[in-house]
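ok so i was messing around last nite and threw this chain in just to see what happens. nothing serious, just curious
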Amino acid sequence: MKKTVIITGGTTGIGKATAILFAKNGYNVIVTSRNANKEAEVLKDFEKNGASVTFFSLDVTNEEQVKTVIEKTVEKFGKLDSIVNNSGISLGNALLADTESDELKQMLETNVMGVYYGMKHAIKAMLKTGGGTIVNLASIAGLNGLVSTAQYNASKHAVVGLTKGAALDYATQGIRVNAVAPGAIKTDILKNAIASGTYDVSGIEALHPMKRLGEVEDIAKGIYFLASDENQFMTGTVLSIDGGYNAK
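result:
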């Protein structure tokens, strides 16, 4: 029986690269996006990349929608083996006193509550069918303090806490919970920010001992390892894929 994975925010960037990798390894892949009108475009795009996926519209800040997507997945494919809680946002890079309170609230809703909802309802489904794996998207900002991103730091530190706590809760029940902590990765969002002058590429590269940015495929491979049967004795781990950033 083919394994099944849900990847939230799986239509672009790291999520898309991860979905393609899982599909090429024989998984039933469900990708989600807030934009319900993107389905035809998304499916066509994945087909061009040699991957077949199922698309569900999902706002991860809506618990009922998260629950429904997981229920639909189990109904269609029989069980849920893995979930990758990839959806996340970063807003308002500024010194803390200059930030907008609403931006922090939005990040907490997506980056923390969205991950929590995905974990909660995936675990309920997995406990009924013998277990599964969860991979959460943390960040180097979830393991360190970064200048002008205190609110984002807070949201990603919370992801690390959810990962470690849940890993202990279900360590003997067949559910492994891990996270990845990417460094600066060449996503469309970062490329656009660099092109607009918001960030300087050489400055970002200089923060990483390898002196370059990562590729989305680098993160996808780490996620796949954590979620797959290749990893049987790892839970509660935050895997740094950051060009050496955390070795400093």
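not much to say yet. The first strand starts at residue 4 and ends at 7.
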